[in-house]
Write a structure and sequence with these properties.
With 135 residues, the protein is mainly alpha-helical. It is 70% helix and 0% strand.
């Protein structure tokens, strides 16, 4: 047999491929059900354990807005001092705006971003950050 005849004789038809896919799907469902679905529902709680308080949640606690502002002010303070000596330093303005943005202090971030855009109106990164802060 030539190579092309051999290649076409070993290729699957679309019907065979669909049947194989359905068989694989059913086999996967069966194996999943056997491994997890038929397992026991877990231990039952009785007596004093039922009235015990639930363990504390492990999700990270987000600080309140006041705490976020304090943190942002603390981080931005040295940069603001540097900014007093060089008020047109775009890098400092962007960094301060980003600190306030990350702390969800959007009005303060917008003000610093606005100062950057006065100096560099074509700065698309700052324009995007400012638009997101407005949103």
């Amino acid at each position: 047999m030539s190579e092309t005849q051999q290649a076409t004789s070993t290729a699957w038809t679309s019907t065979q491929a669909y049947i194989f896919a359905v068989i694989c799907l059913l086999a996967g469902i069966a194996v999943g059900w056997l491994l997890r679905g038929s397992g026991s529902p877990g231990p039952t709680v009785t007596g004093d354990a039922a009235s015990a308080p639930a363990p504390p949640a492990t999700a990270p606690q987000v600080p309140p807005a006041v705490r976020l502002k304090e943190m942002a002010d603390t981080q931005a303070a040295p940069l603001i001092e540097l900014l007093k000596s060089d008020p047109n330093n775009v890098k400092l303005l962007v960094n301060i705006g980003n600190i306030y943005y990350d702390a969800q202090q959007y009005p303060a971030a917008i003000e610093y971003y606005r100062q950057v855009l006065k100096l560099q109106p074509a700065n698309t990164d700052v324009r995007s950050d400012m638009a997101t802060a407005y949103w």
